[in-house]
Amino acid sequence: MNTRFGRAFRYEMQNYFRAVAVLWLAMALIPAAMMALAYFLAGETAAESSFNGYSMAVGMFGLVLGMVGLRENQRVLNQNGVSRRSAFLADVAALAVAALLVAVGVSVIMGIYRAVLGSGSHLLITDLYQLIYEPAPAGNGVGALARGAVLSTVVGWMLAALGQFCSALYWRLSKFWTILISVAVPLALIFGSAPLLTWLDTTSAGRAAVEALAAFGRFLAASPWNAAAVLLAMGAAFFAVTWLLLRRAMIRPAK
Amino acid sequence: MAIEFQHITKTFGDTRALEDVSLTFEEGKIYGLLGNNGAGKSTLLNILTGRMCQDGGTVTVDGAPAGSDAALSRLFLVGEKNLYPDDMKVKRALDTAELFYPDFDRAYAENLAKQFELPLNKKINSLSTGYGSIFRIVLGLSVNTPYVLFDEPVLGLDAQHRDLFYKLLVRKYAESPCTMVISTHLIAEVADLIEHTVIIRKGRILQDAPTEALTAACWAVSGPAGLVDGWAAGRDVFASSVLGGLKTVCVRGEGTEDLPAGLERRRVGLQEYFISLMEEEDQR
């Protein structure tokens, strides 16, 4: 193993592990806080409450880590004699390990909650995997938790890649394009949604697009491994484009 | 074993920052990289450290392409600004340097921090300009890489700390010779330290020679203006200044001939040489 890569990976894991530990703690405390709040408000008569998509936190974590880590890591690693290529590869690897750690931790916490609370609990915790592929009670087993952790890891890694791509894109854009994109994208989402939906509903090309999207959705929903493969391909594509943007970017101090 | 720049060009929009720059920093010397603001000094160092990509030409560090792991692991840039995360503490930055540079001398770094009264538990971004410079100097003097580059190292430092830095630099160089490149505007302060001077102006190398050779080939002759003008006629005068009735001209030459009565001759210092050279270029 390239020593600079190895050291960069170690440095990044040290940084990411602190964030991982904070997230584990938060994910462990949130359901407990929800239960305490429900008990405090309604006591024994509290209605059943549910925490859906518990593992989506892994995705959000990956996105944020990808967004904030890219430039900071390139700066500090360049200062310490690591090439941008080694720094980038270390980042890709460290983000994968961080996503795995968070996903496994979140699945374990979820499993513990389910085991402790039992089936008669007022609090129902489900993750993304259960929502789409294996609803309770089948999805409550250890195997389902493990499969859920794998899917969460891939979701986290892919969103980290998306985060890095956004960060790299903004790094390379001039001030003019930064402002233009920052304004145009939200405006397009707000004012473009209605015409887009109308177009999808009223034109033959739109209906064909809807049908293609539905077919793709069915493919993803058919098996978690289909979704994982697609997400891995998306993550790899985002990382590849990020590298193309990054390799000639100017490494400057933060403002 | 050397840092070699070959035919480097770099443009920013319409501005040509470096134009066909070829330069070598050899092993075991202290270099001065001098130039006015915007001359291209920092651009050159940023290209060397892979922070910026050149438009043309090649840069190698002991044969390895600049920006590669092999090249970067052999040098350390003490830049004008920090590349460390906002929330990193000085102590953690030393830990990081220790992780990446096998020859980093932790005890020496902590000793330097003590001498400069640099607090180890403070966040880097909360340090004043002067202490920010001290923090970077401490790292630069402790990493023990074959090449250490100082870009405006004494920015914001008071006279006492600047003096301490120069003394430590000389001691370090004497104990473990390496190549040091000092880019600074405070030429008079480093003049006695630098063995080899590179002067850059508007992206082009104007001079690249041993400091002694540059200054020994020039003389300042001063005296009453009329007398100086008469003596200087036909000589290679590259700068002149008048203060009251007293005129000083800088001339190139051996400086061995006898001067007419009323004129005085003295050696030109590096700073005076630099200023005179810039004035000569301005007039072109």
UniProtKB/TrEMBL annotation, chain A:
Keyword NAD: no
Transmembrane segments: 21-42, 54-71, 92-113, 149-170, 177-197, 225-246
Keywords: Membrane, Transmembrane, Transmembrane helix
Listed name of the protein: ABC transporter permease protein
Species name: Oscillibacter valericigenes
Lineage: Bacteria, Bacillati, Bacillota, Clostridia, Eubacteriales
From TrEMBL, chain B:
Keywords: ATP-binding, Nucleotide-binding
Gene3D superfamilies reported in the protein's UniProt record: P-loop containing nucleotide triphosphate hydrolases
PROSITE patterns from the UniProt entry: ABC_TRANSPORTER_2
Pfam entry (one): ABC_tran
A molecular-function term among this protein's GO annotations: ATP binding
All residue ranges annotated as the ABC transporter domain in the record: 3-227
InterPro entries: AAA+_ATPase, ABC_transporter-like_ATP-bd, P-loop_NTPase
Full protein name: ABC transporter ATP-binding protein
Source organism of the structure: Oscillibacter valericigenes
